[in-house]
Amino acid sequence: MLTQTAIRSVAMPRPVVSTPVVPMPNVPQVAKHAVGAANGVLEETMRLMGATMTYPRGAEIFGEDEPSDYVYQVVSGCVRTYKILSDGRRQIGGFYQRGDIVGLQFAEDYVFSAEAIADSKVLVIKRSALNALVDRDAAIARELFALTSRELRRMQKRILLLIKSAQERVAGFLLEMAERAPGSNVIDLPMSRQDIADYLGLTIETVSRTITSLESAAAIEVPTSRRIVLRSRAALSRMNG
Amino acid sequence: MLTQTAIRSVAMPRPVVSTPVVPMPNVPQVAKHAVGAANGVLEETMRLMGATMTYPRGAEIFGEDEPSDYVYQVVSGCVRTYKILSDGRRQIGGFYQRGDIVGLQFAEDYVFSAEAIADSKVLVIKRSALNALVDRDAAIARELFALTSRELRRMQKRILLLIKSAQERVAGFLLEMAERAPGSNVIDLPMSRQDIADYLGLTIETVSRTITSLESAAAIEVPTSRRIVLRSRAALSRMNG
DNA sequence: CGATGCGTTGATAACTTTCAAATTTAGTGG
DNA sequence: CCACTAAATTTGAAAGTTATCAACGCATCG
């Protein structure tokens, strides 16, 4: 019995919907694409078929016990998926930002719940509509498959992180976040320390201390708690193992 | 810098092939299946199209730097995927037994290497052939997609394990292994303690001690080190969190 | 029988959590 | 814009867990 504090604070914000979910009875015909079709057919399709929803910071997008009828693509903001364990600990499944798709990995029920970390816009599409598309458009099938494989690889990297020490986990996390803003060394974290802790399987105190020590080691700068500047990727990579 | 001992012992057995890999230039026409087709089209196809390979205990099936041209389905025996980290630690990606498919999650290169833990038979199929099938048979596409989703869920369970204490990890691992032999409380472990340790992100000593303590707590019996009998699933589940 | 690999057990050190409190930041109302 | 409260983050000290180092037992195999 160890670990996560979790639910030291449970904000309970109001779920809000700006655009109603449009059921998708008629699947629009999407042009077939040859083998090797460019990435993006799916995204284009979601834009065409999906309904845009807006969630304020902290709002629930779906609960883990709900039937997983929809798939979501983040347009702006940031979404976290999470699961509350029987003993109250919280495990964060992942953080999803612009372009990321949430809900692919689930079976009949969602295994995780999803919440907006910041005010977020999300495209919603019926899973059944997506499945219908998969049946008639091989390009979409391939793209969806590729997306899922990518998710698998992300998860494997995650597993690699979780077998390591606290310092390696935090360093790896920062590098992962940095990848989302290529070219810049500035990371604006949309999530709290508690979120990071629950993502990495550490306590909030350990995350905080580790960040402080990375700063002392001149690997990063921390102008504000939510903003981190990479000073030495090499040092971080070294710590990442 | 912590953790895994890894590579305390590196057996280097001889790679062996019994049946040559058959390149699959001509994709056999597979009957189309309606939506909701039964699970198994893919397996059937692999039996038809795949080449059977035999690997002795310890033989390498593929290396992580090789191009990932093939996908494998375990027919008998047990396969482990693993990765050696820069500092020599080893992370095990997973254990694959009868019916499991290895290699789906990989991109251009394998991210992991794969080895036979016990003498194993494996069906091998070209990834390109599989992709071609996906393009022309929606049922296969759906099944492959479902398989990948299942792998994702397994991995998520794994992540849930890795954020927990040593006792919870080992208990969870045993329950996971028990699921593969439904109806029986006897688990015959094909893998060593070192394998288990590298799978769970623990040391071999911690795994050993934890198993001993589970035995003391009357949750399991350990007639031989590779055989474990579940005495109280309830107790194990409780420990699993 | 001696070597070798694997698993177990013991003692100590290192790391992470837990509990507690101080400090900083963010949000709200005047 | 400032004051005030609540929330988030950081820091400190002690306790608990896991890794590390070392030795031992046990089986297999030549």
Oligomer: homodimer
Instruction: Flag low-confidence runs of chain A.
Output: 1-38
How do the SSEs of chain A run, as a string of H and E? HEEEEEEEEHHHEHHEEH
What integer value in Å does the Rg of chain A equal?
19 Å
> Which shape of chain A, going by the Cα principal axes?
globular
Q: How far is it from the N-terminal to the C-terminal residue of chain A, by CA?
A: 27 Å
Any overview of this molecule?
The structure is a homodimer of 241-residue chains. Chain A is an alpha+beta fold and 241 residues long. In chain A, α4 crosses α6, α4 packs across α7 and α5 crosses α6. Chain A is globular. The N terminus of chain A is likely disordered. The two termini of chain A are 27 Å apart. A 4-stranded antiparallel beta sheet of chain A has the order 1-8-3-6. In chain A, strands 2-7-4-5 form a 4-stranded antiparallel beta sheet. Chain A has a 3-stranded antiparallel beta sheet with strand order 9-11-10. At the A-B interface, α2 and α3 of A face α2 and α3 of B. Chain B binds a DNA duplex (30 and 30 nucleotides) through α6.
Q: Which terms would index this structure?
A:
homodimer, 241 residues, alpha+beta, four-stranded antiparallel β-sheet, 7 helices, 11 strands, disordered N terminus, DNA-binding
